[in-house]
Amino acid sequence: MTVDGSIFYHTWVTLQETLMGFLLGALAGIILAFLLAASPFWAKVLDPVIMVLYGIPRIALAPLFILWFGLGMASKVVFAFALVLFLVFYNTLAGLKAVDREMVDAVKIMGATKYQILSKVILPSVSPWIVASLKSGMGMALLGAIVGEYIGGNAGLGWLINHAAGLFQTNRVFSALVALGVLVTVMNEVLKMVEKRLLKWRPQNDRLT
Known about the structure:
- By secondary structure, the chain is an all-alpha fold.
- The chain has a single domain (about 5-205), classed as MetI-like fold (Orthogonal Bundle).
- About 85% of the residues lie in helices and about 0% in strands.
- It has helices at about 5-40, 40-55, 60-70, 75-95, 100-110, 115-150, 155-165, 170-200.
- About 30% of the residues are buried.
């Protein structure tokens, strides 16, 4: 399995789907949270819509995404995106609501600009919430990619596990599981480095583990 390099190909496919779904979902979730936090009107208008979409089990959408976007990479990216979006959105929004308003008012009185308030008060306050959601979101993105591949794919570790299991090729199944474990470990270490960089101003024992 590893001699012909196919395990590396399937790992690479899953990694691409995971990263694209994660980055797009995280970016969309953060932007949407900031927009709704800044606009009470749009928050009231969109909140019912978001709640309805959030209430739909995402696993039930996987076959629909495959029908819409095909068996290729696009359907897996969209599914991973859907899993990450709401997780990051609600965490970021909760962080924004937890910002100390007295601190914001105090720096306004001191003559701080909107950019200074955002960069010096809001972002440091909300960054732990965002980092926590990113850590969970990466796992959800990987889950979305694997489930999408398993249900209806033509490449990737999820497809490989399903295909090999159907042929009773346990060695290929274990090879895919080992590759998946390595992938999870590497992504977790990368997120730890990102966390240390984003939260370097916090005491070490306050950071996520």
